[in-house]
Fold each of these.
Amino acid sequence: MDLYFLRHTTLSVDNGMCFGQSEITVSSSFLQEAADTMKLVPDKHNAVYFASPTRRCIQLAEFISKRPAMQDLRLADLHFGDWEKQYWADIPEDQLDNWMQDIVINKVPGGESYGDVLFRVQSFIEEISKKNHKTVVISTHASVIRAVLSYVLEIPFHRAFDIHIAFGSITKISVDKDSFIVEYINRV
């Protein structure tokens, strides 16, 4: 089975805004970016499509597939809780410092930790890898793709933040029984 993880395209959002599961509009360059990403997806007509439940991910999956994508909450970005749609500069420094001590373990006030994201993603990967699909396309977020890489490469999640995941990029992972092979990361 081939799994293609797509990061959504660029967004129309102010610099310095904290968002995760909030609905953020795609930028005016969406059609061109989505067309560029679509060229990177082989076997797109026979693939099974999944998407994070955010509109930005659904739009990309449905642009490529030309049909509805299955939405899965486990593919959602980090829930930034009380910080959603706040500017990083406006978040109380003590809260931010506490979270930054260990973002994998520490939860955002009213939200979740990156460890929670990793747990959700691991559940999705374990479930999907047992299916009998040939090609699966997953439209999601950089944090989810990093969690996937952390899981399949068996590296600490905090190290996965050293991996650049560009907007509209694709990461391919092949599944053979219980074995994962990272074919490529961040192809644009």
Note: The chain has a mean pLDDT of 96.
Amino acid sequence: MTTIYVGNLPVDAQAETLRNIFSRYGRVTGIELVRDGRPSRRSRSYGLIDMPRRAEANTAVDELNGQYFRGMFLRVGPARINREA
């Protein structure tokens, strides 16, 4: 499993939209849009995408990093966290 970091997202980005974008490069098994822990649950403008095949994830990173998405230039790369621990 490869987890991809996607930053610089518009605050109103939806998980389904990201699934559609990343699915062009392979199977997506999970999406998490990170939000504040406050009652407002405001977007933190980044998310995590899980893709089971490393080659497909690497292609998605290469193709999507720096791409223009709804007024923002995406920052896409390998996540630096381990959610399995």
Note: The chain has a mean pLDDT of 91.
Amino acid sequence: MNGNHAAAAIGFPPEQVFKTLVARGTKRGIMVFCIPVCCELDLKKAAKAAGDKKVELVAMKELLP
């Protein structure tokens, strides 16, 4: 189930339901972003906002342990 389906299932607009994304920056390390399920994280903008050169999403298999 994706975020838009989850929002519809609970009766909320997608703009009011959030997903949590974990990313790693080259300088800053681990970062957490909460964004609406209807949006995508722009990694270049995220890096700029964090004062980092590059940001990439952390793989789910790294998060679970």
Note: Residues 3-10 form the longest helix (8 residues).
